[in-house]
Write a structure and sequence with these properties.
It is a single chain. This protein is 37% helix and 17% strand. It is elongated. The protein has one domain (15-82). By secondary structure, the chain is of the alpha+beta class.
Length: 93
């Protein structure tokens, strides 16, 4: 069934998509992980938070490239110990 061409349709109205309310001017962001609706009033804050996250991830990648273990970067040794897990650090044979 094709689209209807007898009417002009509607623009700048609120819609619901997959249970999310989308208002005119909201920002839709999508990637292979999913889709999110960012309310227009929150856009600047979301952009700022996203830029901070990207910078943090870039710093983390550099640390990992230099050989630092995620185990140490994220303070997971203490967590493993609290869970009763013994981590054995062995050199490749």
């Amino acid at each position: 069934m094709g689209t209807v061409k007898e009417t002009a349709g509607s623009v700048n109205i609120e819609i619901v998509c997959a249970g999310a309310i989308v208002h005119p001017g909201d920002i839709i962001v999508a990637d292979t992980d999913g889709v999110v609706v960012v309310p227009r009033r929150d856009a600047a804050e979301v952009v700022h938070s996203s830029e901070e996250r990207l910078a943090k991830e870039a710093r983390n990648r550099e640390q990992l490239k230099s050989g630092k273990l995620g185990l140490d970067m994220y303070g997971l040794r203490a967590k493993l110990k609290a869970l009763g897990v013994e981590y054995l650090d062995r050199a490749p044979e």
